[in-house]
Amino acid sequence: GLKNAQLGILDKAVSDFEEAAWLDPENHEIQFNLGTAYLSMGDFEQAISNFSKAIKLKPDVADIYGNRAVAHAAIGQDIESEKDFDEAVRLGAPPDGLGVVIDYVKDKHRNPS
User: Fold this and answer.
1) pLDDT by residue (tens digit) across 66-84?
2) Quick one: what percent of the chain has pLDDT higher than 70?
3) Fewest CB atoms within 10 Å of the CB: 7, 13, 50, 113?
4) Dihedral angle computed from the Cα positions of residues 58, 61, 63 and 65, in that order, rounded to the nearest 10 degrees
């Protein structure tokens, strides 16, 4: 899954991660990677679902909250995005970098060119 994601073959990556999640449903990294693949594909609702599963399995990982904040921002869920942003920063995510990504996503999805 990771190799396909790195190569930009996202459909195959999702298929690989879905199979891995079925085989190992308690693995937060698989749910995180699956969410990240869906985020890259623009399927923000599914990404949020997978990030939420990852958080239930391991609630102390900043990157999971950060990515979920980005997905929420992309679909206009600003309150949820801000909550996840705050938690990501509390857990060690760099606020400036994450803030730039969230602002970019908000602008891109609210003002498509």
Assistant:
1) 999 999 999 999 999 999 9
2) 89
3) 113
4) 70
Q: Which tokens go with 20?
A: 């891995």
| Angstrom distance (rounded) from CA 69 to CA 45 | 12
Torsion of CA 39, 99, 61, 70, to 10 degrees: -20
Res 2: pLDDT = 58
**CATH number of the domain to which 23 belongs:** 1.25.40.10
Q: Considering its fold, how many domains does the chain have in total? A: 1
- Global pTM reads 0.89
